[in-house]
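Weekly structure sync - notes
Attendees: PM, LS, DV (DV joined late)
Agenda: review two folding runs queued last week.

Item 1: First target. Sequence and structure tokens pasted below for the record.
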Amino acid sequence: MCYNISSTIHDPELLEKALGPAYPAILGPLKSLYSVSGFSHPEWPVVSMNNPKEFRLLRWGLIPSWTPNPDLAQQFSNNNLNAKSETIFEKRSFKVPIKVQRCLIPVTGFFEWREYHQKKYPYHLQLKEEEIFCLGGISDQWTDRISGEIFNTFSIITTAANPFMEKIHNRKKRMPLILPHETAKDWLIPELKEPDIMEMMKPLDERRMTAHTISRRITSRTQDPNVPDTLLPFHYQELPPLS
């Protein structure tokens, strides 16, 4: 799964530089987010199909447009942080957004945990040659019928793990859908049919990825994980290297 991501992007112009001139930097100064949990439902700069030339701040945790009340909206928000690629065309929450509301979520890294001798060890994962890369997602808009407030939300799509990720996320063996620079824009093409979309929802080539262990500060209840130190390499003597 993918419940923790990071973005050390300070300047919106860096997003434009990384994603191409079709993505003008219209946002104000960005705050570095070294470790963010989806369960805190942060707002994130996202590019969506309905406006592919503009970044918008969407809230992590997809709330379907048909949600009848705030209680169920909160439940969906927590349960829909991720959407499985294998069932995305079947689930009621996702089957419309995957066809007409796909989106790109730019990040500089994400986190997963490796289990070894019944203990979990956190890793920070990145791409070797792309400082900023995009995760594939879906979005939706929900209006609270009581307050009238509008919520624009998104979910990150996950796939089966590639061989590299299987060694790290070695229990559930999942990974986020990573769309490399050369194909990221294709994700937003409105004319894509189901077979085309399915073809894009494949694990990234493991040779493009890199990872290192970090300290358990990321899950600390007494220390703030949203600091630069969270991303620093940390060695666990008892943990064997990835083979």
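Item 2: Second target, run right after the first with the same settings.
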Amino acid sequence: MPLTINNYADGILHGVSFEVQRGENLIILGANGVGKTTLAKVLCGLLPSDAVNIGGMIPSQTYSEERAKRINYIPAKMEVFDSYLSVAEFLSLSHFNQTISIDEALSKLNILHLKTHSCQTLSSGESQLVLTASALLHSAVYTLFDEPTANLDPTRMKMLFELLKNDTTLPSKIIITHNLDLAYRLGFDVLYLKEGRVAFHGSSEAFFDQTHLDALYGSSVQKVNNHVVVAL
């Protein structure tokens, strides 16, 4: 059941084509404004296009549980329609995978204590982890995370890194991030967008070669002791 996008174009993206197989993971990188979030919404069917296909299904033309089981979009920010909605109630809305319970998903992220809290009272970091718990409960074939570590403190970021790297609940993860060290340490294939076009699609090893990093970022990014750091 591959996910493919073929020659997609709009006002931001230009001729974008690539494929991800079930069981593969992908990092999407690029500067602000190059179209990463737009691409995510196109892939998930939130923006209409017949350029995207997941095992014969066009996401933007499918509105049933079939789409929900194949692809899931986890935004950078939680939004709830009911100010009184609790964390458990919010998570029950995405509980497609009955092999994992709400308590188990919350425990994986060390936030079981938030189960009865109102979603409106959560910090930005807590909201980010609840969204990740919803992804585990949803367990679509392809899960697309938009900046999953943006609001996390270092301890929680390390915990989420371990989950993204090692947890097998989600068959395929597509991760949009600006965190180059996270991308490097995950070791997933990389797709790099530049000016709305695919400028690179290949292995983590090739992307994070220092010569390639120099070509993209100049002297501002360096590999040091098996980490990628910004040279301030």
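Discussion on item 2: The two ends are 43 Å apart (CA to CA).
Action: LS to circulate a short write-up before next sync.
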